Amino acid sequence: MTTVFIISAPSGSGKSTLVNRLMTGVDGLTFSVSCTTRAPRGQEIPGQAYDFIDRMEFERRIAADEFLEYAEVFGNYYGTHKSALDKAKTAGKDLVLDIDVQGAAQLKKRIPDAVTIFILAPSREILEQRLRARSQDSDEVIRRRLNDAAGEIRNYGQYDYVLVNEDLELAVEALKSIVRAERVRRIRVEEKIRPILATFGQD
Ligand code: ADP
Ligand code: 5GP
């Protein structure tokens, strides 16, 4: 059974850093490559970071009901194609999604046993420092992202886990622990333990 891990965070909280470390540190995970109408940024490789498509194609996919969820973020469409989950299921892997709070709420409704994780920077000041250190955005974009962060953070209560990304190594370990613990939840191992129970004469 594929477990779905949904990770959301205000921009600059360290979500990409943590997700990258999770993907290389835990086996059996696959990352959901989203579709977006925004242009590729920096070193982003199409098909790896995102499936970059134009608005017309995105709207065609909405009309054809091809998305598990989608939302408009910073003036662009972002969405999870249904094939992302199908591929993970076929490969027998768990799926990790990096999506915004609107998408997370839609997906949790559709897949109630999805695990939701919210990542927070330790403070607004540190979030600003990290946005500046990344030096990818202009002053104006940084200001807008800080304002947006204040709004996004209000949604933390809808998430199963809230991770404060202060010390990176500790946060990576906590994130890996969430995945490992969720994988052995009784409801997820029922099928696996049936043959074990059978050896004890139980069904
Ligand atoms: P996001 O994907 O949430 O926008 P990034 O992963 O790009 O954020 O991180 C933003 C910046 O903060 C990057 O320069 C990254 O190296 C740095 N960073 C991430 N986590 C930490 C941490 N725990 N301590 C210090 N710097 C961090
Ligand atoms: P960025 O443009 O910085 O890569 O992403 C902007 C925001 O869009 C982030 O909050 C990211 O989590 C969100 N996002 C990325 N892919 C998806 C998606 O498929 N669906 C939704 N709802 N949000 C997404």
Notes on the structure:
- Helices cover 47% and strands 21% of the residues.
- The chain has 203 residues and is of the alpha/beta class.
- The chain has a domain at 4-32 and 93-199: Rossmann fold, CATH 3.40.50.300.
- Strands 2-7-1-8-9 form a five-stranded parallel beta sheet, with helices on both faces. A four-stranded mixed beta sheet has the order 4-3-6-5.
- β5 and β6 (76-81) form a beta hairpin.
- The relative contact order is 0.20.
- The mean pLDDT is 95.
- Bound molecules: adenosine-5'-diphosphate (ADP) and guanosine-5'-monophosphate (5GP).
- Adenosine-5'-diphosphate binds next to α1, α5 and α7.
- Adenosine-5'-diphosphate binds at residues 9, 11-17, 130, 133-134, 165, 168, 171.
